[in-house]
Amino acid sequence: MDVGVFSLMQWPLDRSAARVYGDELAQVVEAERLGFDRAWFAEHHFSRYGIDPAIHLTMAHAAARTTRIRLGTAVTILPFIHPLRAAEELAVLDTLSGGRVDWGAGRGYQRHEFDGFGVEITESRSRFQEALEIVFRAWQDGPFEHRGRHWTFDPVDVLPKPVQRPIPTYVAAISPESVAWAGGQGLPILVDQFSPFERLVEARKEHAAACSGSAPPAVALRQVFVGRSRDEARELVAPALLWYYRMLAKVGSPARHGEEMPESYEAYRIFSTLSGVAEGSDEGFLDLLLDQVAVAGDAGEVAERLTALHEAGYGSVMCWMNFGGIRHEDALASMRRFVDDVAPKLPR
Predict the structure, then answer these.
(1) What is the CATH number of the domain that holds 47?
(2) CA–CA gap between residue 322 and residue 23 (Å, rounded)
(3) Does pTM surpass 0.85?
(4) Does 270 reside within a domain?
């Protein structure tokens, strides 16, 4: 089982933005030293939910501080960037890192981000699919032109080309439509951190069923914490989970307050449930998260639940260990317990 760490640069009020960046980049360096396979970075805009709007820049910095660990986007939000610019930046990043880039691409889902950039959220799927086509073509040899719904340009030759031909590409997918589309294109998928385990099992089946041949890889994102005991782990992550989901309820919905969910975002109705968490602690909600979504416990429990993901068809997992303001020291301790006590129990 391939294992990575994950960075969203969440910004609680008790620390500076510089501290957030310093801590999470230090964790990436430590992840390489400990032997993790990958470090993934998430793009978000305009809120403390995540303050890394320029993940390609952040990853270039991480590439300069590491030599082995692969560096992944989770994800580049394609409706917010010209696809030629995305192709250029990723090719440069792949060059600077010595061919260590994994490219996760997505269409985005937070309505306030679309509003900030002046992009219509109902166009996200068509923009994403057209942009993906352009990026793939840009990485091939020779100039090309494009005449599409959202972008039109005369012949250009994007330079440099990436070291990897092509850069491994993954599609963020939650809805059955997105999962099936990725499978039909023969593309690997990245699945989200807030869907229950049963939904992840269903998504992998849908993905595999849509493929014409053998199913391409699937990567699962989970909030993970390894404690010295189950009780310690759950006690430590409970306030972090509540911080995370309260913030998600405030900024995470594809719909504006009081409006219907946009077309093609029906799978995000989970935010209607999450919005109630913003008003206070809910023990039943925490139990649901800790039993079906987040993976927090002692080494044995964490290994058992990640192995179940592997058996469901997820050969790779992103372990998000610093979510919701978990202290730097606690995240490092969890990473080290993972390597010492969980990794030897996982399928490898």
Answers:
(1) 3.20.20.30
(2) 10
(3) yes
(4) no
